[in-house]
UniProtKB/TrEMBL annotation:
InterPro entries: Mur-like_cat_sf, Mur_ligase_C, Mur_ligase_C_dom_sf, Mur_ligase_cen, MurD. Gene3D superfamilies: Mur ligase, C-terminal domain, Mur-like, catalytic domain. Residues 2-170 form the Mur ligase central domain. It is found in: Cytoplasm. Pfam families: Mur_ligase_C, Mur_ligase_M. This is UDP-N-acetylmuramoylalanine--D-glutamate ligase. It comes from Candidatus Syntrophonatronum acetioxidans. Residues 192-306 form the Mur ligase C-terminal domain.
Amino acid sequence: TTLVGEILKNEGRKVYVAGNIGVPLCDIAGEVSPDSIIAAELSSFQLEGIDSFKPHISVLLNISEDHMDHHSSLENYLEAKKKIYKNQGKGDFLIINWDDPVLSRIPMEAVKPEVIYFSTRENLESGIYLQGEHIVIKEKGSLITICPVNEVALPGKHNLENMLAASAAAWAAGVDTRVIARTLRTFKGVPHRLELVGSLKGITFINDSKGTNINSTIKALEAFPQKVILIAGGKDKGSSFDELAPYIKDKVKFLVLLGETREKIAMSLEKIGFDNYVYAGSMKESLEIAYQSAREGDLVLLSPACASWDMYNNYEERGNEFKGLVKDLGGELNEEKQG
């Protein structure tokens, strides 16, 4: 959402970025004008109750179990998400992740907006995808190159998917591909999503507090070539952690679990024979344990796979505490060096 806003701003559009990312839509209602564009992030809770809401361009990134305590099933969650294009019509656009096994099976016969797919895995007949080492758009048989993948500012598969989705949305909005490319080369990301906090004694600390569901944490783990020391756990939203467990076994060398879901995650891990984890009672204790177990070259990743509401008001507060504790740890280390 933020990246879409940046692309539009870089072309000189009047843009507001709001919704489920910190600035409520109602807060900007009195400021927007007919020539304004709103890049809005909407939750399944907001979408399931819509009546006349009608975006010009809508985006569906991925579907996995989330908020099962409310929606009860993946099918109900999907139906809530699908309402984003309920009132769209001819002349509107729907951006869909072709690589997502749930979204790619949505029947298109009754979908009224023009559908634009994006993919990091396949060459599409039409849409935005990777051809070799380049991000390209194919439309009506014509191929347009945006930029080489190795020139974009954000690393990782998760970020690449987001960049393709944002590029597709910007393309649908009529943004020049040169502006899209320039933004992809300079955009450094958003706080709390695979955010580099710093390095201490050769140990890297990454804040991914915005990883509030299983799919987000899977993508975070896939973003790094080495095994990581992971801090996970939080509010129980009713999801099973069986899907996450194999990724932890493959990508995590040591795990610190905290929050309401710590025993539930541990049970999923025990099923597949992973027992290299401990429980912690606070973020401070979690970070201390993670740091003590780390060695030079290691990476400590906070990616909870859960909401924050059991211990915090929001994921920003959780991420900010993690960052503050890392900085405090760095201050102590600097004092040791000076001594």
